């Protein structure tokens, strides 16, 4: 019943994506996520409920404010679609509800985190700290419920991934602590599924980060330019969440 799980997860994914469109603007500015209600940045008109339906409202309004006609960025529907797609894919990928829900929550954060880091060069504590606390509590409950997760391995994964980047940050000085906290949260979740999955997340982040640096240099960035690593960490987490066990097994077969 993969299609049924995905169908049930879709509205939740769209709702989370809609919330993340608020988070990408308000968290870097230190504003509340709850109040005030969303408003048009040009005319200040409060967005009505009928105009706040994920993706659909943007399409029906042709990407413009109903009141003043100000253009609404396509980032909003694209972020909603990307978040919903990852949530649906995670729930479809994992048969066990506890595991599917946990992975869905993790990957749902990744597009917004990548976008915030690209724009502002930060990964807000108001995302990473609740994620660390929430996933730790979730793992404890899921373990008691027989959900197929291992909290001890999760802690090991958090220590390995987060601790590894902490050493890099302290030695090089070129990495922010937001990257360290994000890596710890990813290691906590993926480590509960297997430490090899954490290794894939880290390896994919390094490879993707290197590719990103090459692209940035090709587009004219200086050699000393600071390139955010958060998007690569987020992308690595997505790769590991969906293909981690297979990639880890393939690597082990290659080196042994």
Describe this protein's structure.
This protein has helices spanning 2-29, 56-60, 75-93, 97-120, 125-144, 151-172, 177-191, 195-218, 230-255. The protein is mainly α. The protein folds into 2 domains: 1-93, no CATH class; 96-256. Helix 4 (97-120) packs across helix 9 (230-255). The radius of gyration is 19 Å and the shape is globular.
List key phrases describing it:
256 residues, mainly alpha, 2 domains, 9 helices, globular
Helix content: over 70%
Category from helices, strands and their pairing: mainly alpha
Q: State mean pLDDT (0 to 100 scale).
A: 92
The H/E string reads HHHHHHHHH
Q: Tell me, briefly, the overall form.
A: globular
Q: How many separate domains make up the residues?
A: 2
Biggest sheet overview: none
Alpha-carbon distance between the two ends:
37 Å
β-sheet strand percentage: under 5%
Rg calc:
19 Å
Low-confidence segments, ≥5 residues, pLDDT <50? none
Based on DSSP secondary structure assignment, what is the total number of beta strands? 0
- Report the total helices: 9
SSE arrangement:
Elements: H1 2-29, H2 56-60, H3 75-93, H4 97-120, H5 125-144, H6 151-172, H7 177-191, H8 195-218, H9 230-255
């Amino acid at each position: 019943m993969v299609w049924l799980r995905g169908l049930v997860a879709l509205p939740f994914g769209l709702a989370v994506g809609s919330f993340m469109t608020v988070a990408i603007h308000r968290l870097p500015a230190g504003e509340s996520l709850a109040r005030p209600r969303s408003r048009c940045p040009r005319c200040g008109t409060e967005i009505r409920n009928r105009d706040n339906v994920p993706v659909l409202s943007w399409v029906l309004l042709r990407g413009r404010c109903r009141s003043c006609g100000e253009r609404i960025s396509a980032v909003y529907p694209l972020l909603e679609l990307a978040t919903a797609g990852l949530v649906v894919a995670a729930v479809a990928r994992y048969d066990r509800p506890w595991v599917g829900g946990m992975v869905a929550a993790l990957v749902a954060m990744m597009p917004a985190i990548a976008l915030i880091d690209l724009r502002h060069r930060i990964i807000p504590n108001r995302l990473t700290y609740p994620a660390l606390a929430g996933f730790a509590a979730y793992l404890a409950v899921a373990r008691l419920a027989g959900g197929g997760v291992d909290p001890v391995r999760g802690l090991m994964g958090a220590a390995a991934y987060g601790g590894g980047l902490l050493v890099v940050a302290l030695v090089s000085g070129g990495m922010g602590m937001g990257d360290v906290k994000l890596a710890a949260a990813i290691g906590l979740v993926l480590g509960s599924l297997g430490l090899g999955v954490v290794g894939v997340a880290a390896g994919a982040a390094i490879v993707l980060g290197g590719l990103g640096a090459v692209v940035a240099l090709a587009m004219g960035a200086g050699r000393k330019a600071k390139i955010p690593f958060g998007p690569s960490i987020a992308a690595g987490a997505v790769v590991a969440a969906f293909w981690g066990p297979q990639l880890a097994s393939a690597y082990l077969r290659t080196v042994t």
